[in-house]
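Teaching assistant here, posting this on the class forum so everyone can see the example we discussed in section. The complex has two components, and the goal was to see what a joint structure prediction looks like when all of them are supplied at once.
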Amino acid sequence: MALIVKKFGGSSVATPEKIMAVAERVIREKGPEDRIVVVVSAMGDTTDDLIDLASKIDECAAGREMDMLLATGEQVSIALLAMALQKLGHPAVSLTGGQAGIMTSPHHRKAKIIDIKPERVLAELAQGKIVVVAGFQGITASGDITTLGRGGSDTTAVALAGALKADVCEIFTDVDGVYSADPRVVAHARRMREITYREMLEMARLGAVVMQPRAVEMGSHCQVPIHVRSTFTNKPGTIIREGYTVEEREFIIRGVTHDTNVVKIAVLGVPDRPGVAYKVFSALAKANIDVDMIVQSIRNADKNINDIVFTIAKPDLPQARAIIAEVGKELGVLGIVVEENVAKVSVVGAGMLGSPGIASTMFGALADAGINIEVISTSEISISCLVRADRVKDAVNAIHARFFPEEQETN
Amino acid sequence: MALIVKKFGGSSVATPEKIMAVAERVIREKGPEDRIVVVVSAMGDTTDDLIDLASKIDECAAGREMDMLLATGEQVSIALLAMALQKLGHPAVSLTGGQAGIMTSPHHRKAKIIDIKPERVLAELAQGKIVVVAGFQGITASGDITTLGRGGSDTTAVALAGALKADVCEIFTDVDGVYSADPRVVAHARRMREITYREMLEMARLGAVVMQPRAVEMGSHCQVPIHVRSTFTNKPGTIIREGYTVEEREFIIRGVTHDTNVVKIAVLGVPDRPGVAYKVFSALAKANIDVDMIVQSIRNADKNINDIVFTIAKPDLPQARAIIAEVGKELGVLGIVVEENVAKVSVVGAGMLGSPGIASTMFGALADAGINIEVISTSEISISCLVRADRVKDAVNAIHARFFPEEQETN
């Protein structure tokens, strides 16, 4: 007699036929005593179509009216899914975010869930109904409709699962779980049976976005196990939870990720005096540019000048280049070098803290493959190396082969 | 410093360009101190498209889920219109039916407005905003979304105008007012400056549907003047109100209407005994078939048998035919004759009660045009004649010419 929240994304409900397939699956998987809540996104490209429609009126429409508009997308899909469940003979009811008690902050288009009032959902479940809830949306204390921003439906599902004290939140998606590396890059990548919230967040930060980090954080906050599984198959996927249920973990490293969406900027010949690094990075922060890896090295101790090297996301390059040029001029630096042919390869694993030698294994794998490391950075549960972009796939494969010998099974 | 509710239908907001045009008009017509509420329908064919979408899941989807679906149509148009008003520099806010306090009965797809809580609308108006409200929809006491059925947006507008004690409710439509006859039939039909609720209702009942009768009834109930005017021009249309503001009414007859959506059924040789008419008409009533004109005449006094002739709407014919065949057999009638080549022509005017000779003028006009009258029926403010359908246009013109001599002006 489980309480399960299931979330289906836009591509799973893109057509009436697909909605019917979702309804069939939900009913098929439901135990006689199970209580089921289904969270859905807008059908297919509906949200983008609505944004296009609004842009014909105003390219920069206000958030409140935009949310009013966008919320219709999920409202259509919940109505249709409830109809489909009823058509198949199962009592069902659709609820908007507001009706489901998803209370949010008033920050339109990027509202945060601040409370969930689950009474209505619980009452409908108690009547034996499958409850279909609109993802991505909520309501403010004053009754205005809000949307949660990117990945919002995942967040709705996990938060609702937390408020309902659900046994599990199942996220149905187009991949069948979390892999030890991108299966398109590493042929022998393994599907993980389990992974911790923290590892999942770190993998997402380092390029492996299976789920939006916000939803994972929400899962960690509410301590709801999140089961990432495929819309297209019935086999189990990966469960994201606080710790491991299996007694022995065979793999300290949970995944090898890579990220090609990076650019390296080197500021050469920066005067070595207090406040210089602050000047460079506060200018970038003011422009909302996230700086990732940072290395400062001594260029010439006699002349008291250093080199500062850092990485940013590719789309930020034009803005960052202008900012750094200005700051560089002010500081009288020797030069600025931008390198776009770079990528980041990382290993992630909560167990690496207690396991010395992870870094050297990683560096060894890269050295044996003849791949040069340009920058290194580490966190508590990850190690990242910047390499040349044209060698990143080799790098991932070399590292993966070292940490995941082919004959072994995961977990 | 007027408070005005304006309603624009689906064809007025069918595209982003048309929505922008509505926004421009609303701002242009607004006096500096005016408080404006705009009620809009769903864009163009949106409602039909949503019904089609639902039918791909379930031909007979439940009302609650259907309302959840259909309500998105108006939600899209209010968001876009509010964006358009803001884009043009005027503060605006969109409100769903529920947010605007439109409280309804829980009868999905045909809910009745039972209360309006205008606090939010008044608060937004007090802040100088143009308030855009979704027509056609409301919310139940338990927070479920309902729709009001046919003509629902007009009803929303008029009811809201009543609750806000608005000075006038302007209904923008594709005709520029209420005419003394259908201008497509009568070249010299005149636009009325004023007409009473009661006359308008009677004209609608008799075939001239400019506005849904429910909205007119609501106007009468709330005593809100309704101004029916064109979306495409700026000239004034027709004001529907309780009485006339002009001192002298030149025309006792306000309109000549016609209705070709009728069928005549004659039940011949019905036994003349108590309860027979009840038997015939209660069987039709049970099947929800509206009977309009009824005439009973003596066929043969010696044999104690009568003929009963009545009219119904065309779409009800197949069902009515089956019912009458069965009842007729039971009663042992002589025969049943269905005549489809009929149409109803009527004159409507609240003043006819105190003006004898209206009926004879009408009959004279028909006689002079060589048109035979098959059935006559009267109400307090109307007289209707059933004529052959192929003569109905001649009939309308003949009667109109008699009551509205060409040289005179209306009102």
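For the discussion questions: Chain B touches chain A at residues 16-17, 19-20, 50, 53-54, 56-58, 61-62, 64-66, 68-69, 71-72, 75-76, 78-80, 82-84, 86-87, 93-94, 96, 98-99, 120, 143-145 (CB under 8 Å). The mean pLDDT of chain B is 92. Think about how each of these relates to the inputs above.
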